[in-house]
């Protein structure tokens, strides 16, 4: 009897940072066997069974981590707001910029006006730098169209990104992101449109994997968000929520009641919110890029999340207004320096815990038998270097579904 394992490829010669259970769990001098894009064996090379591998790849030291997952982005949008960024630094006030039609409304206009091919081109420009630094899975939200036609257009572009580039894309319908100007003073009427038309159409077209909303004084109230969640439930889609970014509205506790995959931002989350999120398994997605750009001073309550056992993820929040971030690794550094996460928590935040924020924890985010073979080889001595080096692009080899990504 031979216990020979047949595989398409065998990878060895590096230490493997598995991120099992959200911890490093390093396998020294490990090996990974892959068949049909999935891991069929992983462990110490010294204890490896006999392998019949079609292809063997030897690393020359270094470490292997799971592919990085950016679980909160707004990568698809028309134009950008670098002009406003410069105006503000030249002393022009928010009020003046708003009076000129600036702010989110300028992005809504540019997104509505753009052809699908233009949106795709612009989003490819933003997605490529993320992929170059080891991202293998990315979530992309709509939310700058705010009409049925333009929201669906954004979601189609997000899907196309996943077809054009070797990356897993999860899409989220964020029609309840902002009040479109034509609905000024009629927020409830707009929420009717979101619930009765946009969410059902996005779901029917298979364009949305989840539904999100922005719960804040300058966006939508908890009561309006709850209507959005009910519509998502009816459409069979899980929910997420932008919550507690600028004030405490108990949006994250509301999200937890609807078993949300995640509540995101959370600078003003309370102990009650944390307890509710822990009980429902809702992930806290921390977004240091927006915190940094807005020069916020209130940090998300990381100690409360630890105390209550809330799973924490980190994402780029890549968006034109508050986080034009094109580096997830920089967000790992910021989560450590600004929010005091440990490098291990931060790496879990862009691997297994980010997978959980997308409902993918059974198949993605850690290197274990049966999971997808998305991993990255780094010529580094220890995983903390991923958090330590500030900016720049570290060389890496990305393996996506068992194949080297060019
Ligand atoms: Zn966001």
Automatic annotation (TrEMBL):
Subcellular localization: Cytoplasm
Residues bound to 4-imidazolone-5-propanoate: 81, 144, 177, 245, 322
Gene3D superfamilies named in the record: Metal-dependent hydrolases, Urease, subunit C, domain 1
Metabolic or biological pathway: Amino-acid degradation; L-histidine degradation into L-glutamate; N-formimidoyl-L-glutamate from L-histidine: step 3/3
SUPFAM superfamilies: Composite domain of metallo-dependent hydrolases, Metallo-dependent hydrolases
EC numbers, comma separated: 3.5.2.7
Membrane-spanning segments: none
Domain Amidohydrolase-related residues, every copy: 63-380
Reactions listed under catalytic activity: 4-imidazolone-5-propanoate + H2O = N-formimidoyl-L-glutamate
Free-text remark on how the cofactor is bound: Binds 1 zinc or iron ion per subunit.
Taxonomy, superkingdom: Bacteria
Keywords: Cytoplasm, Histidine metabolism, Hydrolase, Iron, Metal-binding, Zinc
Cofactor entry: Zn(2+); Fe(3+)
Swiss-Prot/TrEMBL GO biological process terms: L-histidine catabolic process to glutamate and formamide; L-histidine catabolic process to glutamate and formate
Residue numbers binding Zn(2+): 72, 74, 242, 317
Positions with a binding annotation for N-formimidoyl-L-glutamate: 144, 319, 321
Keyword RNA-binding: no
GO MF annotation terms: imidazolonepropionase activity; iron ion binding; zinc ion binding
Similarity-based family: Belongs to the metallo-dependent hydrolases superfamily. HutI family.
Task performed by this protein: Catalyzes the hydrolytic cleavage of the carbon-nitrogen bond in imidazolone-5-propanoate to yield N-formimidoyl-L-glutamate. It is the third step in the universal histidine degradation pathway.
HAMAP family in alphabetical order: HutI (MF_00372)
Protein name: Imidazolonepropionase
């Amino acid at each position: 009897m031979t216990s020979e394992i047949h595989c398409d490829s065998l990878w060895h010669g590096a230490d493997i940072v598995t991120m099992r259970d959200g911890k490093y769990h390093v396998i020294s001098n490990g090996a990974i066997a892959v068949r049909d894009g999935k891991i069929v064996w992983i462990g110490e090379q010294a204890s490896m069974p006999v392998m019949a591998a079609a292809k063997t790849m030897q690393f020359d030291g270094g470490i292997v981590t799971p592919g990085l997952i950016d679980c909160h982005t707004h990568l698809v949008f028309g134009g950008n707001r670098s002009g406003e960024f410069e105006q503000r630094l030249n002393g022009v006030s928010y009020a003046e910029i708003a009076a000129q039609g600036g702010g989110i409304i300028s992005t809504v206009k540019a997104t509505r006006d753009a052809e699908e091919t233009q949106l795709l081109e612009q989003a490819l420009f933003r997605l490529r730098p993320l992929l170059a630094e080891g991202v293998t899975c990315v979530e992309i939200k709509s939310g700058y169209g705010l009409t049925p036609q333009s929201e669906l257009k954004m979601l189609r572009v997000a899907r196309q990104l996943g077809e054009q580039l070797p990356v897993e894309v999860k899409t989220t319908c964020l029609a309840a992101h902002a009040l479109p100007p034509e609905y000024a003073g009629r927020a409830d009427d707009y929420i009717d449109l979101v619930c009765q038309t946009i969410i059902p159409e996005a779901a029917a077209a298979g364009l949305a994997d989840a539904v999100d909303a922005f719960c804040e004084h300058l966006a939508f109230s908890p009561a309006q968000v709850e209507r959005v969640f009910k519509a998502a439930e009816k459409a069979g889609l899980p929910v997420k929520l932008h919550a507690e970014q600028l004030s405490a509205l108990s949006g994250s506790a509301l999200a937890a009641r609807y078993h949300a995959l995640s509540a995101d931002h959370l600078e003003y989350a309370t102990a009650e919110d944390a307890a509710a999120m822990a009980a429902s398994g809702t992930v806290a997605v921390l977004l240091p890029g927006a915190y940094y750009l807005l020069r916020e001073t209130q940090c998300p309550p990381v100690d409360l999340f630890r105390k209550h056992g809330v799973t924490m993820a980190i994402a780029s929040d890549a968006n034109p207004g508050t986080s034009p971030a094109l580096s997830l690794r920089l967000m790992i550094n910021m989560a450590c320096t600004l929010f005091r996460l440990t490098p291990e928590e931060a790496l879990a935040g862009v691997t297994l815990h980010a997978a959980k924020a997308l409902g993918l924890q059974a198949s993605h985010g850690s290197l274990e038998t049966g999971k997808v073979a998305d991993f990255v080889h780094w010529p580094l001595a220890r995983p903390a270097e991923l958090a330590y080096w500030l900016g720049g692009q570290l060389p890496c080899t990305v393996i996506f579904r068992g194949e080297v990504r060019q």
